[in-house]
Amino acid sequence: MSNKAIVTRNLTKKFGDFIATNAITFEVDQGEIFGFLGANGAGKTTAMRMLCGLLKPSSGEATVAGFDIFTQAEKVKQRIGYMSQKFSLYEDLTVKENIRFYGGIYGLTNTAIKNKTAELLHKLQLEKEAAHLVSSLPLGWKQKLSFSIAVLHDPSIVFLDEPTGGVDPITRRQFWDLIYEAADRGVTIFVTTHYMDEAEYCNRISIMVDGRIQALDTPGRLKEQYRAESMNDVFLQLARAKPAAANP
Predict the structure, then answer these.
(1) How many other CB atoms are there within 10 angstroms of residue 92's CB atom?
(2) What is the pLDDT along the chain (248 residues), one digit of tens a residue?
(3) Distance in angstroms (rounded) separating the CA atoms of residues 60 and 81
(4) Across the chain, how many H-helices and E-strands are there?
(5) What sign does the CA torsion over 21, 27, 29, 35 have?
């Protein structure tokens, strides 16, 4: 189990009679880019919030970075990075102030915050915008800044919830370059998306349909299994099929 960043067994979340996430079971290796795909409302965000320690599961079990999400949620939070659909930035703070604020939240020393801030501004070529409000940045730059802040404290796992929504294809591809750089450093990437073409960028993917994992494998093997030319074709086949009785 030591090489597993995330392990889930029959993880379930119910809201009254509605089952948002239905007995999902999967594992994610350390350093893997794991895509969690599905249409809006498929249960992706609910699953991610449970794994981040932000939402208590109804049943099942899971560990993240070796810690139990039921009993050690605070330890999980200390070892992960998280980027939400809203990019998690404070629009009324400057670029530099956002970096320094999150550095403090993550418990970095003043010296580390100073060094990380300079390093990040240089890497993103935002030195001239350091004193500008985040609200003045184009969406693509907000996205890149938000991701970079999510890994500011060198977490072992980073969760990205629909990180590329609303941006153009070129900016999306540039964002994935940042993901690759993090993965090359050994960071585990868990990313939810409803863009099926982004599945091609992942080492493995799972596809959620109505709260269940209907498929889980590499993009190449899934396309071969479903005799499909693209991941979108795979998804359409799964969406039309009757949900399976259990996870694969």
Answers:
(1) 10
(2) 458 999 999 999 999 999 999 999 999 999 999 999 887 778 888 999 999 999 999 999 999 999 999 999 999 998 999 998 766 799 999 999 999 999 999 999 999 999 999 999 999 999 999 999 999 998 888 989 999 999 999 999 999 988 887 778 888 888 899 999 999 999 999 998 878 888 889 999 999 988 999 999 999 999 999 999 888 899 889 888 755 444 44
(3) 23
(4) 8, 10
(5) negative
Angle at 157 between CA 198 and CA 85, to 5 degrees: 50
Element (H, E) at 179: helix 169-184
- Size (the chain), residues: 248
Which of 142, 220, 210 lies closest to 175, judged by CA? 142
Residue indicated by tokens 């999967």 = 26
In the chain the domains, ranked by start, together with CATH numbers, are: 31-54+71-240 (3.40.50.300)
CA dist 129 and 222 (Å) reads 43
> Distance between CA 126 and CA 145 in Å, rounded?
9
- The candidate with the shortest Cα–Cα distance to 145, out of 185, 178, 190, is 178
Q: What is the pTM of this model?
A: 0.89
Distance of CA 40 to the CA centre of its chain: 15
Q: How is residue 180 written in tokens?
A: 């690759």
What is the C-alpha separation between 198 and 178, in angstroms, rounded?
14
